[in-house]
């Protein structure tokens, strides 16, 4: 239930792209279709002295009658948003997991380590990107009127992500109605396919305003609060 939807949640938090900004902190509310909130998310982005970016997102939510979910993801990139390291930490009720993927862009290889488990090494594409780094790239490309072609994205396993512009529609954000661009996204993994919708502001940074994503317990939205 939670594992498949975690990718959709992570892909929503399109960490702040380097549009000349010193960094960014965004707050989100996780809402049921009724509008009732069941959690919150926080996204931070910080530029590095070497020309790359550090991204971090957290999700703290409670599913009534089920369990508490605390997810934390962090990404370190070089210039060009090529990934250097991606860390996934999850606490779903009593279950805790942590894994780290380190990228060697020169040898086109990556090493994935599950803490308390094993280590695997695999080949990667030139300038391979984790989920956060890739979707920063998407924001940059979309701001230039382009949508990236089908691309492999690392989120533990490799997912093929396909994006489609679904048009411009009205959306209410903090009580105000604005026109935003909707992207339909499909992520195909080794054992699952996830479909969700991203809604981006028409500002220079293409700020993510909302997502609609399916969980097995129902469809929810993540909405920008500030």
Describe the structure.
The chain is 11% helix and 58% strand. Strands 8-7-6-5-4-3-2-1-14-13-12-11-10-9 form a 14-stranded antiparallel beta sheet, with helices on one face. It is built from two helices and 14 strands; from the N terminus they run αββββββββαββββββ. It has one domain (2-224). The two termini are 29 Å apart. It has 226 residues and is mainly β. The chain is globular and about 50 Å long. Strand 5 and strand 6 (95-104) form a beta hairpin.
List the helices and strands and how they pair.
Elements (H helix, E strand, L loop, with lengths): L1 H11 L11 E8 L5 E11 L5 E11 L3 E11 L5 E10 L2 E10 L4 E6 L4 E5 L7 H13 L7 E5 L1 E17 L2 E13 L4 E8 L7 E8 L2 E7 L2
Element order, helices and strands? HEEEEEEEEHEEEEEE
How far from one another are the termini?
29 Å
Poorly predicted ranges: 13-20
Number of helices: 2
Structural class: mainly beta
* Helicity, as a percent range: 10-25%
Which overall shape is indicated by the principal axes computed on the Cα atoms? Answer: globular
Strands ordered across the widest β-sheet: 8-7-6-5-4-3-2-1-14-13-12-11-10-9
Rg, Å, rounded: 17 Å
Strand content: over 45%
> Average pLDDT, to the nearest integer?
83
Q: Report the biggest beta sheet as strand number plus sense, adding barrel if it closes.
A: 14 strands, antiparallel
- The number of distinct structural domains comes to 1
Q: How many individual β-strands?
A: 14
Core attributes:
2 helices; 58% strand; 14 strands; 226 residues; mainly beta; 14-stranded antiparallel beta sheet
Give a concise summary:
The chain is mostly beta strands and 226 residues long.
